[in-house]
Each structure stands twice: as structure tokens, then as C-alpha cells.
Specification:
- By secondary structure, the protein is α+β, with helices and mostly antiparallel strands.
- Helix content is 18%, strand content 43%.
- The protein has a 15-stranded antiparallel beta sheet that branches. Strands 16, 20, 23, 24 and 25 form a five-stranded antiparallel beta sheet that branches.
- Strand 4 and strand 5 form a beta hairpin.
- The two termini are 26 Å apart.
- 49% of the residues are buried.
Length: 506
């Protein structure tokens, strides 16, 4: 269950959200670093550091965040640093993102050229991937946003928008900014008059995510609040010693499950299951329709019917069609490195001389189920190449390696993010709490492979755990390539609905 993905995605969101901050003053020399403590549900779990440096006609803005949580008594630390490099008038020049997730590190460096393109280098496990993306027209980064905020000011009721490029997800997002009144805000015992700033970001695949910030008259962020998966994340400005000081133990496992209204024994052997979801007030659920999942509205509820399709026999691979979406599902990405030599080797080993696409995909699923030996909770958010080397991880590691191996032999594959039903998770009986006595749904990741003319579900993690692989107990919320941004819909959707009823068809 992808607890750390909530955290990883939240870090991506934090360093990207356009809450005015980081000194609006001097343009000469290094500005003093600002420290903030990070809280989850009132417990201190880490820190953030913000800095801005002006030198040689360039402005370098850096934001670092580090959080440590407990997953079934296993501590997990996630670090992210994001740097943007711009001219003094806010023109983008380059950026750098480093993600450290337990033992796994990935670095993305981008250089924006005069032709409106960004040249990327992704480094992981000592390997480099180079690619080019088009720079979004009119997009700004930290300094461009700071200048815009400085120009607009903090008048109560003011509203404006910004096209903000997020290096963490390598795309621009639309941000709507609304200035509110001054309020007395408690900053760890200090009560300070600060201006409220509400930021609404429209994220692809996730809809709107709203954060509330409080800034001083110099536009420095002193407090921010963001909902995530039904929890509340806060950052509060403080002295360095407290920010970097000891953290509380914050156990997140049980907070990442949604109670089932009834026991779903042997759900993996059912032909289909219909889930009746009741959104919380004001929530707009975005649930994808796939070959395996249909969605309809019924009496104010969202009914999701999961009916796994059987792979058509006799389909061949590699895929030779021209559908752009399917062709995209064959390309290597920064987390699904299907062009990696070791992954290609493993894929050929798994498939052998098999010519049938359905059988080949199942061979890959079974291979990955056995290949990932260490299923410990301390692993960070790893890419397929990292999993191939380490043989460790949980559901997303199974998923990205399965997808990469499928793509490596010419079977289009996508990583699906959603929720799956369990009664037990890594030796923890979910039913130990009254609210989970009927089992629960937790964040999960699996794969769908394009075989013949259908997208077919594969779940190497469930296969490995003896849970039957992909089945009607899976509810898809987002589909992509396993990159952090693919989990945005899961982050924004968790905590936004409850499951009132389940109808299982045997």
C-alpha cells in the first residue's frame, strides 16, 4: 500500500504551490534561509528550508523538505529539493529536482534554451536519460512568481492567476490565487497578524487542490495548510533549532485505509463487484473508465463496477498499431525505464520464446512476483531500474518493474493507481480496529497491459502475496507511467468519499 506515495506527491505539491514567500527584498547576495517545521495531524514530522540567492544576473531559489513517518513501526524518511534558476526579471533558465526516498535517489536537471525547449537529464542508479520537452508558453517558476506577487500586492479580495511550471512533475499547472484578510495566526505560541492567501491549483488528473497560506508584509510565508488524503499538513515558520530538531513518531498505516462496509471474502474469485461511493460535501470525484471498470451516477452516489476482462488468446506482440495513446505506453519514462539493459534482459528471460501476448504478460507478472524478494516497508519510491537492481519494494515497485518489462518486449503497459481491498497488510490485521472489522481498501498500484484490443489488469504484488493478482477488489483512480504525478488523483481523492455498499457477483 503506497503510504509513501502520498508523502512524495505532497512534497512535489509543496515545492510547487505558489504561496508567496521567500523574501521580496534585496536583489544582492544570499538571502537568509528560512526554516519551517512540518506537522501532520499536529505531530512534527520534519522540516522545510527556503532560500534565494542573486549572483551574476541570476536568481537561484531553492526549497528543501524532509519528513519522517512510521509505517507499521518502520521509519521512512523522504527528502526532496527543488531549485529554479531564473534571470532577475523572472525569465526561466533551468531547474533541478532531487528526490531521496530511503536508499533511492533520483535527480532531474533541466536547461531552458532560447528555442522554447527544456533539455532534461534524469540520473538514477548511475544511469542517465536525456530527453527534451516543450517549455509551456508563459510559464514561470519561483522568481517569476515572486515578482508577480510583489506587483499584485496583498489587497484583501484581490484574485489573479499564474501559469506555474512545476519541476517536480515537469509540467505547468494553472494556479488561482486569492488574497484574504489579515488574521491573527498562532505560530507555535507566537500570535502574529498575517495575510491569508488561498491557492487553488488545477492539477492534471487530480482536479483542484487547495492550500491556505499566511504571509507577512514582506511576502514571506509563515504558515501553510494543505489537506492530503483526509489529513491536514501544516508548515510553520520557526527557529532553525526547532525545525531541525527531534520529530514525533507519526504512524500512518491505519490512516491510509478506507473501511469496507462488509467483509469481501474471496473477492479475487468474483466475476465483478459494484461499489457505491458517497462523496463528501463539495467533493468532485474523478474516477476513470477503463476496459475493466465502468462508472455511473445513481441516486447521488458514484457507482463503480469492476469487471476484469479476460485477455484475448492469440494476440501477438510487439504492438504494431498506430494508436498514439497505446504507442505512448511503449516508451521509456523516468520511472519506467524499459530501455534499461538489465530490464530488457529480465523481460526476455521471463518471456522466453513465447509468442502469445496474453501468456507473455502473465509470465512477466509471475516473474516479477518472485523476483522482488524483499517486501519491506522501508524502501523508498523506486524506479523500475532501481527495483531490477535491488529486488525490493512493495506495490509500486512491483508495478513499475512489471510495466517496464512489458514495454521492453513490445507489450504496451500503464501503471494504475487506486485502492485495493485487503484484510491483512504486511502481517498487520487491518481488522484490529473496530472501524476496519470488515476489512479495508488501501492505496495500491498495479498494471494494465494492452493485449489484442483490451487493457488487461496485472498485479504482481497481489500475485506474490497469494491474493490472486488483479481482480474485482481493485478500484482504479488514475492511470499513467508510475511517475509521482500519477498519484495526484489518489492524494486528492482519498478522504473525499466513503463506500456505502458493495455488491459482489460470483
Amino acid at each position: 500500500m503506497k503510504v509513501r506515495h502520498f508523502l512524495c506527491v505532497w512534497l512535489v505539491l509543496f515545492v510547487s504551490l505558489p504561496v508567496p514567500g521567500k523574501s521580496a527584498g534585496s536583489n544582492k547576495g544570499l538571502l537568509e534561509e528560512e526554516y519551517l517545521a512540518v506537522f501532520m495531524e499536529g505531530k512534527k514530522v520534519g522540516y522545510a528550508i527556503q532560500s534565494r540567492e542573486v549572483a551574476g544576473g541570476k536568481v537561484t531559489t531553492t526549497e528543501k523538505v524532509s519528513i519522517t513517518i512510521s509505517r507499521a513501526d518502520v521509519p521512512v524518511t523522504i527528502n526532496m529539493a527543488e531549485t529554479s534558476i531564473e534571470t532577475t526579471d523572472g525569465k526561466p533558465l533551468g531547474f533541478e529536482v532531487t528526490q531521496e526516498l530511503s536508499a533511492m535517489t533520483m535527480k532531474v536537471t533541466g536547461t531552458v534554451n532560447n528555442q522554447g525547449m527544456a533539455e532534461l537529464i534524469v540520473t538514477s542508479m548511475g544511469n542517465e536519460q536525456k530527453s527534451t520537452i516543450e517549455w509551456p508558453s508563459g510559464a514561470v517558476m519561483a522568481e517569476g512568481l515572486r515578482l508577480l506577487t510583489q506587483k499584485k500586492g496583498l489587497k484583501d479580495g484581490l484574485q489573479y492567476s499564474a501559469n506555474l511550471f512545476s519541476p517536480g512533475i515537469l509540467q505547468a499547472v494553472d494556479a488561482q490565487i486569492k488574497i484574504g484578510p489579515k488574521r491573527n495566526v498562532d505560530l507555535l505560541g507566537r500570535v502574529v497578524a498575517l495575510t491569508e492567501v488561498t491557492t487553488t491549483v488545477n492539477l492534471p488528473g487530480a482536479g483542484e487542490i487547495v492550500s491556505t497560506g499566511f504571509v507577512d508584509d514582506q511576502l514571506r510565508m509563515q504558515k501553510s495548510i494543505m489537506p492530503m488524503a483526509g489529513m491536514q499538513i501544516e508548515m510553520i515558520a520557526c527557529v532553525k533549532e526547532f525545525a531541525l530538531g527531534e520529530n514525533d513518531v507519526f504512524e500512518v498505516i491505519d490512516k491510509m485505509f478506507l473501511a469496507s462496509p462488509q467483509p469481501l471474502d474471496n473477492i479475487d474469485s468474483a466475476s465483478s463487484a459494484s461499489y457505491y461511493l458517497s462523496p463528501t460535501k463539495g467533493a468532485a470525484l474523478k474516477i476513470p473508465v477503463t476496459d475493466n471498470q465502468k462508472v455511473r451516477l445513481e441516486n447521488g452516489q458514484v457507482c463503480v463496477t469492476v469487471s476484469p476482462v479476460a485477455p484475448p488468446a492469440g494476440a501477438r506482440f510487439p504492438y504494431k498499431g498506430k494508436d498514439e495513446v497505446i504507442l505512448e505506453a511503449l516508451k521509456p519514462t523516468r520511472f519506467v525505464q524499459s530501455d534499461n539493459k538489465e530490464i530488457i534482459k529480465l523481460a526476455r528471460q521471463a518471456v522466453g520464446d513465447c509468442k502469445d501476448a496474453a501468456k507473455a504478460a502473465k509470465k512477466i507478472e509471475a516473474f516479477v512476483a518472485k523476483y522482488v524478494e524483499n517486501k519491506g516497508l522501508s524502501v523508498g519510491y523506486a524506479s523500475a531500474a532501481e527495483v531490477a537492481a535491488s529486488k525490493q519494494g512493495d506495490c509500486s515497485e512491483f508495478a513499475v518493474l512489471t510495466a517496464a518489462m512489458c514495454r521492453a518486449v513490445g507489450i504496451p503497459a500503464q501503471v494504475v493507481v487506486g485502492m485495493a481491498y485487503v484484510k491483512d497488510f504486511s502481517g498487520l490485521t487491518i481488522g484490529r480496529q473496530a472501524k476496519f472489522e470488515s476489512g479495508a481498501f488501501g492505496g495500491h498500484a498495479w498494471v494494465q497491459a494492452y493485449i489484442g484490443d483490451k487493457w488487461v489488469g496485472l498485479d504482481a504484488a497481489f500475485n506474490s502475496a497469494g491474493l490472486g493478482g488483479y481482480g474485482p477488489g481493485h478500484i482504479a483512480l488514475s492511470i499513467g507511467s508510475g511517475n509521482p504525478e500519477d498519484f495526484l488523483n489518489l492524494v486528492s481523492t482519498m478522504g473525499q468519499f466513503k463506500i456505502d455498499k458493495v455488491i459482489v457477483n460470483k
